[in-house]
């Protein structure tokens, strides 16, 4: 008998999802002005989880007005008091972290192991980190008494719904701004639960407003003249549209967009850890990560050895019920995203790359894509250039460090990169040469609230995290 | 004895360390504030702008890769060279901006001092805006500023020299290369600056100076896919908006026009606007195997 | 004695083809230092991640029985007596007197002077006698003494020999001397009838200090003919850990891929709870897979672990938590 792991599902009972949710504006939940709603699904089963209000331009306007009204008092509050609200929020998130992890897994489709061990601890840590800044802004290097901008309009993606909310809201509130946040259409629930956490924390009404909806809601928010700051995380195409829409205004803009991260493995790499790093780089969160290491650049002299090891490792990945504590690969977030992944993977085959995936049974309901790698990929292939945002790794080779760097940088993007070598001077010289905002050497996909994150080139501008992350929300 | 006839200078562009005429062959008349003819300046075309971007791109590796100390030495050398040609610039600025000799001298002195200020910044900015991040894990984590790349600059229209220096120096101090469109009506101090830069050890292509109509040249720079950032200091509201829209095509970093007192302490903003923060992680871990006996 | 699958002629040839790497101290050093490095943080993170696997219900029942069957039930005390050893042997053969379906352990591990007592007590039981040897645990004796120690244990009926390497020689870079010593002990494991005791080579990973050293020692031991590579004596502060065991599993995996020769792994010392044991089995399962999930290729060197496994086993079958009064004290 083989050692088969019995199902080990995390209990759903820990989270109570209401049949419907309104918009959170001025401290209260309310229906959309035109009464429109949309459904949010569990991508692993296509089960309808709840019905959520579709925010209209009128609702966005109400939310911005509420935020504007709240701004005067909130920004005038002593930093130490704002800090205490944020500390309260951080603590409540810790208390409710299992509930939020299960909720996030249900709404997003990512494995509970990730929401439990990565998303939620980072969410709480982010609030703790920025809470501490609220009364220390004079010492942050932006001159004495730096001022808040006003109302921040924030639009976030579906890949890390609550973590991206934390990255947006924590620094905004710490610096004295008020916010209107639009969560992604397919993952609105954790933001709505966060609204309840704001209530429990006693946060003054109007300081945080959550307006659910689709792209039109987001556009209404970004274009609203009452917004002083726009922060967006999402696709490069939408980021460019936003950059155009704020042209000629005084709105401060930060964008955290797409990527096509190169993960460079040299022949003197710590191979077993490199394999783990490659797997973590592209299969963490089903590869739906802007900083994913989606291009593997492997030195030709170890290509066979590394690919054998990688394939062997991929065969041990456990795909299935995201709530199962032993699941490594969960569901793709939406039918639309799945279709995009499939189309790009098909283009890889059509363009002559060689496709490989481990034997892997996909569930019949829900949106699934097996972990896949492509070999014989060249720089000219679409799968080497376009962001797939899925569990698909493109493998390319190089012969020399200079060639590795040239290929890594040959991209419109510049968000992340990885370097695997035991030679210290090579790490430093390659890291210096890479045009990417985050470089992981002998590790990958590590995040921390103290560590600035953001891109070069078309991966966006501005940094989130660390002291650097304050700048986006200060009038400096 | 009859008065000696002076020798006029043919003002030329400064691109890739050379002094070309506009490829278009066009010039335009530059007058002083009272309308008196001063010189014909090259009327740069979009192709001149393109050539300048090629030169600027070519220079990025060497300039960004130079040590900060070396960049500081070179910027200081610019100040030294300018000091030697102070009288020439005072006269040019006085003509260009209609200033008295003493007021023009104040502008030139401030511009020289600005080079000195930024010369000193080259090897300090990284310590001010970068640093180690205390992440909650066994990792060494360091954020370092790096130059954005090729920066297009629409120079201030009114402050033909101090304003110009105030926008060029910070961009190159931190390792970028620049294509600058000089003040449209007062380009001569800018074009003369090229002559100073050429003799100050500034590598060719690091600073490229164009004269002409900002509204004609800048859109192609704003739309250029190989330009990484744009400083709109001298663009009016309408042009600024159009350039921002064009700049969105490759998500250039944009420094919007704002009211600036060029004589005030410039702070660090014009440097940080054209810096990218790179954060590098590396595992640290314990000295040996977890819990080893040593 | 469990059947050791034949590695076949091909494996022998492939192994022989590696003879050049052990031809001289220099060649061996170059080979061992040419092995891929180990990143400490990455290795420990992988081991920790595998430690989060949730093993429940049927999987847990399977894993508990598997773990019991993999135990080298150990007593290595100055105070050991024949009575104590006989009691331990009885326990190893019949771990839970209240439940005869409980598997027996793999071996009883004792000092050489107790090997005969253990052999007598275990005769016909199917439980092996394992004896430590080579001046265990420090290994600080002359080679002839170590070899005599080994031969004594084999002669007394030991089916398996747990030797210690000369850590001093290893740390001072005398790899060939360590290699030759293992080879000599392997030779001393032979019986007159041509059969041989299986040789487990203990690295005392806590003293090797770095993961790079543990990987090198693993290859050194395997090249010298180890049937098992083993983490620790249980006599130093740090013994088996998930990370060093994971690393050794990677080594046996890679060694087999290179030579065709399969080698077993034995973490020893510090594994006291069912939860710990299950984590190690997950490491085996997801690193080298099913082929190592038998007591021919994986062992736990442990003593108190058995009672915890038995209590957990009782919990699974009865649904209520057991207590120390319901398992035997040895």
Automatic annotation (TrEMBL), chain A:
<dbReference type="InterPro" id="IPR015590">
    <property type="entry name" value="Aldehyde_DH_dom"/>
</dbReference>
<comment type="similarity">
    <text>Belongs to the aldehyde dehydrogenase family.</text>
</comment>
<dbReference type="GO" id="GO:0004029">
    <property type="term" value="F:aldehyde dehydrogenase (NAD+) activity"/>
</dbReference>
<dbReference type="Pfam" id="PF00171">
    <property type="entry name" value="Aldedh"/>
</dbReference>
<keyword id="KW-0560">Oxidoreductase</keyword>
<dbReference type="InterPro" id="IPR016161">
    <property type="entry name" value="Ald_DH/histidinol_DH"/>
</dbReference>
<dbReference type="InterPro" id="IPR016163">
    <property type="entry name" value="Ald_DH_C"/>
</dbReference>
<protein>
    <submittedName>
        <fullName>Aldehyde dehydrogenase (NAD+)</fullName>
        <ecNumber>1.2.1.3</ecNumber>
    </submittedName>
</protein>
<dbReference type="InterPro" id="IPR016162">
    <property type="entry name" value="Ald_DH_N"/>
</dbReference>
<feature type="domain" description="Aldehyde dehydrogenase">
    <location>
        <begin position="31"/>
        <end position="475"/>
    </location>
</feature>
<dbReference type="InterPro" id="IPR016160">
    <property type="entry name" value="Ald_DH_CS_CYS"/>
</dbReference>
UniProtKB/TrEMBL annotation, chain B:
<dbReference type="InterPro" id="IPR016161">
    <property type="entry name" value="Ald_DH/histidinol_DH"/>
</dbReference>
<feature type="domain" description="Aldehyde dehydrogenase">
    <location>
        <begin position="23"/>
        <end position="254"/>
    </location>
</feature>
<dbReference type="Pfam" id="PF00171">
    <property type="entry name" value="Aldedh"/>
</dbReference>
<dbReference type="InterPro" id="IPR016162">
    <property type="entry name" value="Ald_DH_N"/>
</dbReference>
<dbReference type="GO" id="GO:0016491">
    <property type="term" value="F:oxidoreductase activity"/>
</dbReference>
<protein>
    <submittedName>
        <fullName>Acyl-CoA reductase-like NAD-dependent aldehyde dehydrogenase</fullName>
    </submittedName>
</protein>
<keyword id="KW-0560">Oxidoreductase</keyword>
<dbReference type="InterPro" id="IPR015590">
    <property type="entry name" value="Aldehyde_DH_dom"/>
</dbReference>
